[in-house]
Amino acid sequence: MPNNAPAIFLIRHARPLVNRNGFFSKAEAAQYLQDYNEAAVEEVKERSEHLPLDQIQKVFCSTLPRAKATAVMLFGPEVELIEDATFREFENRIWGLPLGKLPLRWWQVTSRALWLLGLNQKDIESFKQAKVRAAQAAQHLAQEAESNGIAVLVAHGFLNEFIKRALRREGWQVVVEGGRGFVGVTKLEKASA
Questions:
Q1: Who has the most CB within 10 Å: 35, 102, 183, 188?
Q2: Per the confidence metrics, is the pTM higher than 0.70?
Q3: What is the mean pLDDT of residues 88-117?
């Protein structure tokens, strides 16, 4: 890939400061989701060597506090931060009968799996709607990168994965795979025609 190829950086937020230890009732698991959406995040101790900090003047981010806080920690208060609800994480709601306490992971995986199957989407965005939103986000980032050479997004693991998939369908190639870990950086480039 040439160095002047348009680039998109997808960054997952830092680890939220919320307790996930122990066993949770259905109500406690639902409260955890709410707390997670409102939580502060751990301090980012080091930035990825893949981020061209001297070229980044504008950063897109989710409207959720964990993404905004991570963006400010990574790029400083002087960067132009563009908050957009298009970049919010895919919604989730806890599913299940309130019959005791289970590990939080059980509540989360079961609820998300049922949502993916279309069985747990009452009062929230469906999986189909979320994929459309991710494709729109990908298109927006691609236009930004093609106009300005670079687009940077600080958002969420699930959303970033589906943005990446949409970009790959449009000819973008992953040149750095940061995974879905906290503050993971994925870089995509598009070769000039």
A1: 188
A2: yes
A3: 91
Residue entry with tokens 């949770």? 24
Structure confidence by residue, pLDDT tens digits, 149-159: 999 999 999 99
The answer to whether residue 2 is domain-embedded is no
CA atoms of 151 and 158, how far apart (whole Å)? 19
Of 165, 86, 183, 84, the closest CA to residue 174 belongs to 165
Q: Is the dihedral of CA 34, 36, 37, 38 positive or negative?
A: positive
Question: Does residue 168 form part of some domain?
Answer: yes
State the Cα–Cα distance between residues 76 and 62, nearest whole angstrom.
16
In a domain, 30, yes or no: yes
Q: Is 121 helix (H, G, I), strand (E, B) or coil?
A: coil
Strands (E), the chain: 7-12, 23-24, 58-61, 80-83, 102-103, 150-155, 173-176, 185-189
Q: Residue 142's domain is classified under what CATH number?
A: 3.40.50.1240
For 158-181, what is the mean pLDDT? 94
Task: Say if residue 2's pLDDT is above 60.
Answer: no
pLDDT band at 191 (very low <50, low <70, confident <90, very high): low
Task: Answer yes or no: are the C-beta atoms of 190 and 171 closer than 8 Å.
Answer: yes
